[in-house]
Design goal:
The protein has 221 residues and is mainly α. It is 64% helix and 0% strand. It has nine helices and no strands.
Length: 221
């Protein structure tokens, strides 16, 4: 009996406290609204802006064929893909890093370089919204046939880069590419009748779609 009374009292106190706790609504704040100037992270961000991103540009344009693959798709001359099948994602990651850096370290030359890459990416997108240089260069009949080949992973990094670049620069060319890809994916996969199921080991596309949806919701309010 004592245990029952104690449990009832605990339940009463718990529910009373819960009822008195005000609810909070959290709204996302994008990084372009945040300034970091502390002694730990600011020097690191400065190093990224002045050194790391130059290495990214070198790796993307010179050391690897990553940008060349986009150029090949745009030319449409049945050229072969070079490099690793997920290389597109590294271009998108570099663009996202540039976007983050431009927030605290405006750099017209670096922004111009990003715009050049974006032009090449946009030119490589197929009319139906699909974009993946590995499959677009001679393997289109195999696209969306192997869950391990990072197609949605690459697309997720495209979306994250596009949202970040738009938030910083207000330029929506890459964002439009990302939206078109997202619509393409949505037209093929999902729980609706007639659509296919697609489950991969990376949660990248899901994370990116949350950012894209949030960005579009903020824009419309």
């Amino acid at each position: 009996m004592k245990k029952l009374v104690a449990l009832l009292l605990f339940d009463l106190v718990f529910n009373t406290l819960r009822a008195q706790t005000p609810s909070r609504q959290f709204e996302p704040i994008n990084f372009s609204q945040v300034t970091i100037n502390d002694a730990f992270w600011k020097p690191t961000l400065d190093k990224v802006a002045t050194t790391t991103l130059q290495a990214c540009v070198y790796q993307t344009e010179v050391k690897t064929p990553r940008i060349r693959n986009f150029e090949k798709v745009a030319r449409g001359k049945n050229e072969k893909h070079e490099g690793i099948f997920y290389d597109d994602s590294d271009v998108f990651k570099a663009l996202e890093a540039i976007a983050y850096s431009l927030k605290n370290h405006p750099n017209p030359e670096l922004e111009k370089k990003a715009d050049e890459w974006i032009d090449k990416i946009a030119a490589a997108q197929l009319p139906d919204g699909y974009i993946n240089t590995y499959y677009s260069l001679g393997r289109l009949d195999e696209r969306w046939s192997d869950m391990s080949m990072h197609e949605d992973y690459n697309g997720g990094h495209l979306i994250e880069a596009a949202v970040a670049y738009y938030q910083v620069t207000g330029k929506r060319k890459l964002l439009d590419v990302a939206i078109k890809f997202a619509n393409h994916f949505d037209s093929l996969f999902g729980p609706e009748p007639g659509k296919r199921h697609w489950v991969t080991g990376h949660q990248e596309l899901e994370l990116a779609l949350v950012k894209l949806t949030t960005q579009r919701r903020i824009k419309s309010t």
